[in-house]
Design goal:
The complex is a heterodimer of chains A (about 110) and B (about 110). Chain A has about 110 residues and is an all-beta fold. Chain A has strands spanning about 5, 10-15, 20-25, 30-40, 45-50, 55-60, 60-65, 70-75, 85-95, 100, 105-110. In chain B, strands 2, 4, 5, 6, 9, 10 and 11 form a 7-stranded mixed β-sheet that branches. Classes of the chains: A mainly beta (about 110), B mainly beta (about 110). The interface between A and B is medium-sized, with 24 and 29 residues.
Chain lengths: ~110, ~110
């Protein structure tokens, strides 16, 4: 069956370091993969989209990589700040079908 | 301001009492969707709609109904709510495009069914 896995354990890092979050998937042929940020009690907010034929995408302090051979995406936040503390969700849309499926999310805590 | 609105934001009800959660978007998006979010289970799609009068089941449609009579509105109906439908619900919308599928989410509706 199709599965999207994100580390359910919280990631704790020190301010200024690079945070790296992982999204692994199985039995998908994704057209693209997206990353969202979600703050407690609020709706997810779109951050970045990366397509199946792209290896890397950047936006300010954010970088996403996409390895369709490993079936994995990595999400990096460089020079992390306490304000980056949130839950980060990855989501995939397959080539067949119109559904966007979300992973369970990883909570990031950046300590000053 | 471009946004997705949901009402009510909080609702406590009893088993079997029909309820409707409204969702409206002002971005002229074709695609709208409902999700529920539960601890440990993440966001799961309930129903989605590609356009007016076109709706499809998501991962967890049982116990829910939707309608899409107008482009901007996509209400979620619980005909006979049960306690296992206690959850945080999100409505989302997006353009229909092969190159992007950015979902814009509403603020959420926290539903408790007693």
């Amino acid at each position: 069956s199709q599965k999207i896995e994100q580390n359910s354990e919280a990631l704790n890092i020190q301010e200024g370091k690079t945070a790296t979050l992982t999204c692994n998937y199985t039995n998908y042929s994704p057209a693209y993969l997206q990353w969202y940020r979600q703050d407690p009690g609020r709706g997810p907010v779109f951050l970045l989209l990366i397509r199946e034929n792209e290896k890397e995408k950047r936006k300010e302090r954010l970088k996403v990589t996409f390895d369709t051979t490993l079936k994995q995406s990595l999400f990096h936040i460089t020079a992390s700040q306490p304000a980056d503390s949130a839950t980060y969700l990855c989501a995939l849309r397959g080539n067949a079908g119109n559904m966007l499926t979300f992973g369970g999310g990883t909570r990031l805590m950046v300590k000053p | 301001e471009a946004q997705v609105t949901q009402n009510p934001r909080y609702l406590i009800t009893v088993t079997g009492k029909k309820l409707t959660v409204t969702c409206s978007q002002n971005m002229n998006h074709e695609y709208m969707s409902w999700y529920r979010q539960d601890p440990g289970l993440g966001l799961r799609q309930i129903y989605y709609s590609m356009n007016v009068e076109v709706t499809d089941k998501g991962d967890v449609p049982e116990g829910y109904k939707v309608s899409r009579k107008e482009k901007r509105n996509f209400p979620l109906i619980l005909e006979s709510p049960s306690p296992n439908q206690t959850s945080l619900y999100f409505c989302a919308s997006s353009e229909v495009s092969l190159s992007t599928d950015t979902q814009y989410f509403g603020p959420g509706t926290r539903l408790t069914v007693l």
